[in-house]
Specification:
It contains 10 helices and 3 strands; from the N terminus they run ααααααααβββαα. 44% of the residues lie in helices and 4% in strands. It starts with 7 loop residues before the first helix and ends with a helix. The chain is elongated and about 60 Å long. Helix 2 packs across helix 5 and helix 3 packs across helix 5. The chain has 295 residues and is mainly α. Strands 1-2-3 form a 3-stranded antiparallel beta sheet, with no helix packed on it.
Length: 295
């Protein structure tokens, strides 16, 4: 095969094509997991991994118990910045990696296979949202195989008339004015409820910012009495695709910032600290989100 234009990436792809089974679905899955991990997209990598694990369970009833090798994370109610002093009972919450020898070839992914897999997930109490997420991950893997010329485009099953990925209905979860007023006037019973209430209000007043956005805020994001930042999930887009938030700081927001910000610490809120790995950042953000939702 002759490359139209030489790039090291295309050269490596052609060099390794003989080593990689042209029909090995899980090999492409793993490549995508590794690629997203290298790019720092830990959440996307985890989603792709969960999709792959689900399909393995479907085709070979996988029940393996892989050993976990991840670092344990502090599970304190309020994010802790003293690992040497922390006495909380930390337990590993990571997903165990499947090591089964299951095999699936691309020619086996037919409309019938997809309909059967979808029914299996529904029968196993997967929500329509989860079904859609896992199937979109599989579709992305199939698209990657087409790009790598591992499967002909003519066999593509994700088209109208063959198989369509189900869409979950949008649910309006917005609070009405009366509900917002109740939350505003609510007096927390403890420090955990106080933390949850404060972070909820910061999110509300910054155009619905995600907790990961609040976690990354620093003093440099405060400009002319406003909080300005780019949403984390849009940072990889082109400049035109970035979502920039500019939220004026009112008295309530200012009190929250003053309450939690320590000038000796980089971040405004005690969720993250300097030097964390991408996995540690994700775990801390997930934990903080869980505690806010709980209280």
């Amino acid at each position: 095969y002759q490359l139209a234009y030489f790039t090291f990436e295309d050269f490596e792809l052609e060099l390794n094509r003989g080593k990689l089974s042209r029909t090995d679905v899980f090999a492409i899955y793993q490549n995508e997991i590794d690629r997203h991990t290298e790019l720092g997209k830990i959440g996307t990598a985890e989603t792709v991994h969960n999709s792959m694990r689900s399909i393995k369970k479907f085709i070979c009833k996988c029940k393996c118990k892989a050993k976990c090798v991840c670092d344990k994370e502090c599970k304190c109610e309020i994010p802790c910045h003293c690992p040497a002093k922390c006495k909380c009972p930390s337990k590993c919450q990571c997903k165990k990696v499947c090591k089964c020898k299951c095999k699936l070839e691309f020619h086996q992914i037919t409309p019938r296979f997809l309909h059967t897999y979808q029914k299996w997930m529904v029968d196993n109490d997967r929500t329509k949202t989860t079904v859609g997420i896992y199937l979109r991950a599989l579709r992305a893997v199939y698209n990657k195989a087409i790009v790598k010329r591992l499967i002909p485009r003519e066999r593509y099953p994700f088209v109208k008339g063959k198989f369509t990925i189900p869409k979950s209905a949008k649910v309006n979860k917005a609070l009405n004015y009366k509900q917002q007023e109740l939350l505003m006037n609510y007096e927390p019973d403890n420090k955990y409820e106080e933390w949850a209430k404060d972070m909820w209000h910061m999110s509300l007043r910054t155009n619905g910012a995600n907790i990961i956005d609040l976690a990354h805020l620093t003093s440099s994001n405060i400009v002319e009495n406003s909080i300005r930042f780019v949403r984390i999930k849009t940072k990889d887009r082109t400049q035109e695709g970035e979502i920039i938030i500019n939220a004026p700081i009112d008295n309530y927001m200012d009190r929250i910032i003053q309450k939690y910000h320590d000038p000796s610490r980089k971040f405004l809120f005690p969720i993250l600290e300097v030097g964390l790995s991408r996995n540690q950042i994700r775990n801390k953000v997930k934990h903080s989100t869980k505690m806010i939702n709980k209280h």
